[in-house]
Design goal:
Blueprint: E1 7-12, H1 16-27, E2 32-35, H2 42-47, H3 49-70, H4 82-107, E3 110-112, E4 116-120, E5 123-126, E6 129-138, E7 142-144, H5 158-161, E8 170-174, H6 178-189, E9 193-198, H7 209-221, E10 225-228, E11 232-236, E12 240-243, E13 248-250, E14 253-256, E15 260-262, E16 295-297, H8 308-323, E17 337-339, E18 345-349, H9 352-359, E19 362-370, E20 382-390, E21 396-402, H10 406-418, H11 423-427
Parallel strand pairs: 1-2, 1-6, 2-3, 6-16, 8-9, 8-14, 9-10
Antiparallel strand pairs: 4-5, 5-6, 7-15, 11-12, 12-13, 17-18, 18-21, 19-20, 20-21
Helix pairs in contact: 1-4, 1-8, 3-4, 3-6
Length: 449
């Protein structure tokens, strides 16, 4: 490592990617420093994956109590207390903040509790000091955006949703992506009269088209008021929302989940010569190198695949590239992901639409059924599974699921898809009975639609 710089690596941003890259690089012997002005853990730990999943668990309990009654349990009249959930969530997040910081300290990483900006290709300004580094890593994540409509200041984003003083009686969630669907399900499950409004014709753009349609129908059946092709035009005092079609409605809370923007403003990137994309993302190559040789970027700030496990994987690959002598390009193929709406959704590989565009002829296998757990109750929720198979090679190109524990099930399926398993190999695998997961290895009839 070079002694002409204060550090071998200086990381700006203490989220999942920045923390992982810093501590792994330090483990390879690099001298590393990190700057974070907020809490360690970034979006995922503080206002993303972890608190959202905790809220999602809370929201599912209402249905669990109903199902329990059908199995002979008498549970009385369930009551929910928002303050208790919020306090317990805050305690867990504080614990995780400490875990992240201890990981850095134990790895020998120097921590700067301040905002850092770029000076040039090898310098950062932090807390009134100029520090030099052989390599600089930008890992500042992204930030929620609200459209520039009149009254936008009256709405919140997912950031604020985790810290509400009280639970509203009614809420409008605007957006058709996974964050919007997750929060609409959370609010609905906790007893809030919830409306989900989206400007498009179907939910989850970019996912397999059938998933968005089916998940929307399931959410509507559970009580979410779904409004497609509905775009808020302005938010009036008293939280009266006027839509572009001329309709209007009153809500106690309005939350926008209409996209996130890479967090690059005010970092000094342009003055340092770093090229940014039109959306503000740091433009990088396959090794996460920016247009400046010594400046790198990973995670949401690059706007590639904006998922926490992808950011941490990019961090590992970068640390190997820089400090282990193993140049390792990113691998974004067959990244599994889940949407923790109610019901859950998970997917890996190509959608039917993408598979047809890339491979031409494909075979589709799918099924829809009522889960065994629901068979004694009045619930009509349908579990849905789908395999997309390349006709020529018989390789499974995509696997998709809507239903309980979809994320847990698809994680295992993702291994097979990543390894290039064929439909025959899926068929040759013995299922675990009775489970929902076994359906993925018992699909025999091709879909004709």
């Amino acid at each position: 490592m070079s002694a002409q710089f204060d550090y071998d690596l200086f990381t700006i941003g203490g989220g999942s990617g920045g923390v992982r890259a810093s501590r792994v690089a330090a483990g390879y012997g690099a001298r590393v420093a990190i700057a974070e002005a907020r809490l360690f853990g970034g979006t995922c730990v503080n206002v993303g994956c972890i608190p959202k999943k905790l809220f999602s668990y809370a929201a599912h309990f209402r249905e669990d109590f109903e199902i329990a009654a059908s199995f002979g349990w008498t549970v009385g009249e369930p009551r929910f207390d928002w303050a208790t959930l919020r306090a317990n969530k805050d305690r867990e997040i504080a614990r995780l903040n400490g875990v992240y910081e201890r990981l850095l300290v134990n790895a020998g990483v120097t921590i700067h509790r301040a905002r850092a900006t770029l000076g040039d290709a090898h310098t950062v300004e932090v807390d009134g000091r100029t520090i030099t580094a052989r390599h600089i890593l930008i890992a500042t994540g992204s930030w929620p955006q609200i459209p520039a409509i009149p009254g936008r200041e009256r709405a919140i984003t997912s950031n604020e949703a985790f810290h509400l003083e009280r639970l509203p009686r009614s809420a409008l969630v605007v957006g058709g992506g996974y964050i919007a669907l997750e929060f609409a399900s959370i609010f609905n499950g906790l007893g809030v009269a919830t409306t989900l409004a989206y400007r498009g014709q179907r939910l989850l753009r970019g996912f397999d088209a059938e998933l968005g349609t089916r998940l929307g129908a399931e959410m509507a059946m559970k009580g979410v008021a779904l409004r497609l092709q509905a775009n808020p035009a302005r938010i009036e005092p008293g939280l009266r929302v006027a839509f572009a079609d001329g309709s209007a409605a009153d809500f106690e809370l309005v939350m926008f989940a209409t996209g996130r923007k890479p967090n690059t403003a005010g970092l000094g990137l342009e003055s340092a010569g770093v090229k940014l994309a039109a959306d503000g993302a740091v433009a990088v190559d396959a090794y996460s190198r920016s247009s400046v040789d010594s400046i790198w970027a990973i995670g949401d700030v690059t706007n590639r695949v904006n998922l926490t496990p992808v950011a941490t994987a990019e961090a590992m690959w970068l640390a190997k590239t820089l400090f282990r002598g193993e140049p390792t390009p990113v691998d974004h193929d067959n990244v599994p992901t889940a949407v923790f709406a109610n019901p859950n959704l998970a997917t890996v590989g190509l959608s039917e639409e993408a598979a047809r565009a890339r491979f031409g002829e494909v075979e589709i296998y799918k099924t829809s059924f009522r889960a065994l757990r629901d068979s004694l109750s009045a619930r009509e929720e349908q579990t849905f599974m789908k395999l997309v198979v390349d006709t020529a090679s018989q390789r499974v190109l995509g696997a998709h699921m809507i239903g309980p524990d979809a994320g847990e099930i698809i994680q295992g399926i993702a291994v097979a898809v990543k390894l290039g398993a064929t439909k025959a190999q899926f068929d040759a695998t013995i299922g675990i009975h009775p489970t929902a997961a076994e359906e993925f290895v018992t699909l025999r009839d091709r879909s004709l639609t």
